[in-house]
Amino acid sequence: MSNILEIKNLTKQFGDFTAVEDVNFSVKDGGFFSILGSSGCGKSTLLRIIAGFEPETEGEVIIRGESMKGVPPEKRPVNIVFQHLALFPMMNVRENVAFGLKRLKLSNTEIDSRVNEMLSRVGLEGYEKKDVTALSGGQKQRVAIARSLVMKPSILLLDEPLGALDRKLREHMKVELKLLQREIGTTFIYITHDQSEALVMSDEIAVMHEGRFEQIDTPRNLYKNPKTAFVAGFVGDSNRFELSRTEGDTLITNKGWSINKKSSMAEPKVLYIRPEALIINPSEGLTDVETFGITIKTILFDGSNTKLATTVTGTTEELLISLPQNAEFDGLSEGQTLQVGVHINDLKCY
After folding, report:
1. Which domain-ending residue is among 169, 202, 233?
2. What is the mean pLDDT of residues 297-307?
């Protein structure tokens, strides 16, 4: 699969402030590529540069093999969906979707054909004459996406489009967007600060921090094998421990917890352990598994995401443990002591 977008040595400065610093990446045609980062990391600025709303200070944006240097937004083969969807309240659904096509002065027959096809694809058949102010949040989202996709862009840019929706609707729209992108085949570049959105929907994710990319990878590799301490702490839940020193193959935390882990680093400074990587009452004979005792402080019930807040025996080190789904733990109680295990590959040092 060929690359539809290439970003080369891209930098954007606002006076003395560098918003985007020497970013390089490519996106495959028909892929779903997400840029994940906290507020202020530069991800929206990067999207605006791709769209042509901001000029780059250095570097180059290449779409389908052509440099976008000096190409204005309206001439670029991209469209953008913002968090605040900017639908026209005085227009109905059909008029909103047809707006861009009418500006191209296409024939009424062509406009009707493309609008009908797009409304069908986003599941809004029969809504043509509906007032957009009477639609639900998810329906408005689909109108905004249809209005962009009907223009047949090579790339659809989405800037935190689910941010204004309530939690339950966001969960539903994550699945809908993924399925829609797969059906239509347009390349999506998606900006978000929500790791769950990025992990669920993306083929590849770039984690952005202070204007730079920390790691570009598949969702699974990003989660299982974070390359930097920032990625380990930002993507998913993790227990984080400051390390005071190492003695041979033993890591010693600031609060006195010792655990065996051979590290390739000369002086690791921090240790991360995923809550779900911890095994309660591990079976005897497991290889490459470190075991230790814990005391339950409290049980944090959240259905399938229930966790134990614990302390490591003999220390004040706090440890969050995810309970396995569909497991019976009715006998657990505050103050109870347990044995816990963790595979050495799940001990991530930085």
Report:
1. 233
2. 87
Q: How far apart are CA 300 and CA 75, in angstroms?
A: 53
What SS3 state is found at 199? helix
Name 314's Cβ contacts closer than 8 Å, sequence gap at least 6.
256, 257, 293
Determine the structural domain holding residue 211 and report its residue range.
Answer: 3-233
pTM above 0.85, yes or no: yes
Q: What's residue 144's pLDDT?
A: 87
| Nearest to 59, CA basis, from 11, 17, 18, 20 | 11
Give yes or no: residues 123 and 182 share one domain.
yes
Query: Over the stretch 6-22, which tens digit does the pLDDT of each residue have?
Result: 999 999 999 999 999 99
Q: How many domains does the chain have?
A: 2
Q: List Cβ neighbours of 161 (8 Å cut-off, separation of 6 or more).
A: 81, 82, 83, 85, 141, 144, 145, 177, 190
Could you tell me which residues are beta bridge partners of residue 240? 272
Q: Which residues contact 42 (CB under 8 A, 6 or more apart)?
A: 12, 19, 20, 21, 208, 210, 211
| Closest among 211, 213, 170 to 194, alpha carbons compared | 170
> What per-residue confidence (pLDDT) applies to 327?
63
- For the CA atoms of 260, 262, 268, 271, the dihedral, rounded to the nearest 10 degrees, stands at -50
Does 176 or 153 have the greater pLDDT score? Answer: 153
Same domain, 76 and 170: yes
- For the chain, what is the mean pLDDT? 90
Domain boundary among 188, 210, 233: 233
Q: Which residues sit opposite 79 in a β-bridge?
A: 156
